[in-house]
Amino acid sequence: MVDALVKAIVLAAGEGTRLRPITESRPKSMIPILCRPIIDWHLGNLLKAGVEEVYVVVGHMKEHVVKYIESRGYSGVKIVDQGELRGTGDAIIKASERIGYGEDVLVVYADIFLEEWGIYRRLVEESGYFIVGVEVPKPEDYGVIYVKDQYLYRVVEKPQKPESNIVNAGIYKLNTGDILENRDLPVSPRGEIEATDLVTKIASRRAVRVLAYGKKWVDVGKPWHVIDVNKVALDSISGEVRGEVKDPVYIKNKSRVYIGENSTIYPFTTIEGPVYIGERVEVGPNAYIRPYSVICSGSKIGFSVEVKESVLFENVHAHHLAYIGDSVICENVNLGAGTVLANLRHDNATVKMTIKGVREDTGRLKLGAIIGAGVKTGVNVSIMPGVKIGSNTWILPGVVVYRDVPSNSIYPPREKIVY
Known about the structure:
Blueprint: E1 6-12, E2 32-33, E3 36-37, H1 38-48, E4 53-58, H2 62-72, E5 77-81, H3 88-99, E6 104-109, E7 112-114, H4 118-125, E8 129-135, E9 143-148, E10 151-157, E11 166-175, H5 176-181, H6 195-203, E12 208-212, E13 217-219, H7 225-234, E14 240-241, E15 244-245, E16 250-252, E17 257-259, E18 264-265, E19 270-272, E20 275-277, E21 282-283, E22 288-289, E23 293-295, E24 300-303, E25 306-308, E26 311-312, E27 317-320, E28 323-325, E29 328-329, E30 334-335, E31 340-341, E32 352-355, E33 358-361, E34 370-371, E35 376-377, E36 382-383, E37 388-389, E38 394-395, E39 400-401, E40 410-411
Parallel strand pairs: 1-4, 1-6, 4-5, 8-12, 14-17, 15-18, 16-19, 17-20, 18-21, 19-22, 20-23, 21-24, 22-25, 23-26, 24-27, 25-28, 26-29, 27-30, 28-31, 29-34, 30-35, 31-36, 34-37, 35-38, 36-39, 38-40
Antiparallel strand pairs: 2-3, 6-11, 7-13, 8-11, 9-10, 32-33
Helix pairs in contact: 3-6
């Protein structure tokens, strides 16, 4: 381990409204990547890189983060309660006040994921101030980095006509002294204190180098990004079977299939890697798990159920005759027999999804449903591409769902249900 005097701030307080219904039951920093919360990937890699203390700023659903960190038993990880959620800049300032003046710190957004984590060690070992930049195809969706002689000039959030494809990757190396000396910041048009405004202000007085990150990078900001980020992680897995496989089972690309402890794969099941199956999962008999699928602990995928490029959180039950395509299913969901999560339009157009009341083009030819926690579907339910089902909702039998369904509801609405 590097003998360093560097601390870290992990920003995990945000509400994640664009990720709903996923963030109705958990903060976005607890979204699972290969069944492991995204924040845990940051904590493990920061400590491995030689960071001596990590300050996690919590806010929305903070009890989930605190409980998880306590269960992991990390030494050197401390909690900072942001209180009122006033933006990422405010969160950095709150953590810096806790750390004290004059300390070098890495600042990391908890909702980003890296294909390769060695950049943390590099930032620990190198002196000076840094902002990490990454090249993306649609920079207008992010904070664009403007560079002058290899140093940061400013960061502009979501410009209509960006001058480059290099955007803010959500990783900085700064000093708490400069953070605290520049804490007097204006409120942005969306009513928050922005981290980018803080870094831009520091860059006007200090030399902040732009460090390029050349590997895959995912900002988990919208529901379909949960599929994207798990796909990146699956590309790096090594196969291992810790559970029980009851032959005959066909496993393709076995070196890229992970089956967790106390999980059982029943006969006549086909699994095509890369696939990650967590602990205490039951699959089969006669199930089909296709590439880039993640099935987390306590889930049951039964007879003639097909899962394709989807992420299933904890305790998802689909016992028989279901199709789950390019979808995200949150915890404690039960899909009735014959439930189909369709993932492709007849016209082969890209799938649209409603985000905060606005229809957005996801850019994906195939995208199924986003299903919140505690949802139940009746038999023979069909859910069309790009539909979101809010948490704790019931979908009645024999229904075709074309548009989003709100949380805590019954669809279609009925004054009285008689069985």
